[in-house]
Amino acid sequence: MIEKKTLRAHYIKLRSLHAINNPEFLQKISENFFNILENYPKKSIIAGYLAMPGELNLLPLLQKAEQHGYRIAMPVVISKHSPLSFCLCGANPTITISKYYKNLPEPIDAYPYVMPDIVITPMLACDRQGTRLGYGGGLYDRTLASLRGKSSSLVVIGICNHNFLVNSELPHNLYDQFLDIIITDKEMITTRARQL
Question: For residue range 93-147, what is the model confidence (pLDDT) as tens digits?
């Protein structure tokens, strides 16, 4: 099996060749996202993220969700090795750069902390079983493990270009947290993790 480090380099290079924030792609993602969101009550708290360079910009999607009555939270790094905390800041927060991670935007720490119902996680790629290939720091794996320890109903969503949905199984270990739902521009997948 190919090592995660090699896969990360491959998908970072591949991502640079795709215009992931083009209007046609975003429209298809939006349609699929809102088809999934219909299954969750209004006022649910959706934790998004503020995109780093090269990542999918979720703000238009989150702004639309907010207009439909969902509450929007964003992650904040409290300390380098702790799980993320989530601030109920809405889809247009005042932004700063994390003092712990280079180039990581986050809302200013002036909003109430909340427990999200749905987490949209950043990633480089994923497989159909819900294995998420992140950036290698374990930040979201720690965070999702902590959140799942507090709520068995937490829903973890990964959104990506269909070209980054891998048909073969990605490598994973004991600490990796799986996606419950995968949304691409071509399909929506409820993973094995969600069905258990």
Answer: 999 999 998 889 999 867 889 999 999 999 999 999 999 999 888 899 999 999 9
Which fold is adopted by the domain 4-195?
Rossmann fold (3.40.50)
CA dihedral 106, 107, 111, 113 (to 10 degrees): -20
Question: Rounded CA gap, 113 and 33, in Å?
Answer: 25
What distance in Å separates the CA atoms of residue 41 and residue 44, rounded to the nearest whole number? 6
* CA neighbours closer than 13 Å in the CB half-sphere of residue 194: 18
pTM of the full predicted structure? 0.93
How far apart, in whole angstroms, are the C-alpha atoms of residue 20 and residue 31?
Answer: 16
Q: Which long-range contacts (CB under 8 A, 24 or more apart) does 138-142 make?
A: 138/175, 139/77, 139/83, 139/84, 139/101, 140/84, 140/177, 141/175, 141/176, 141/177, 142/81, 142/82, 142/83
d(CA 93, CA 91): 6
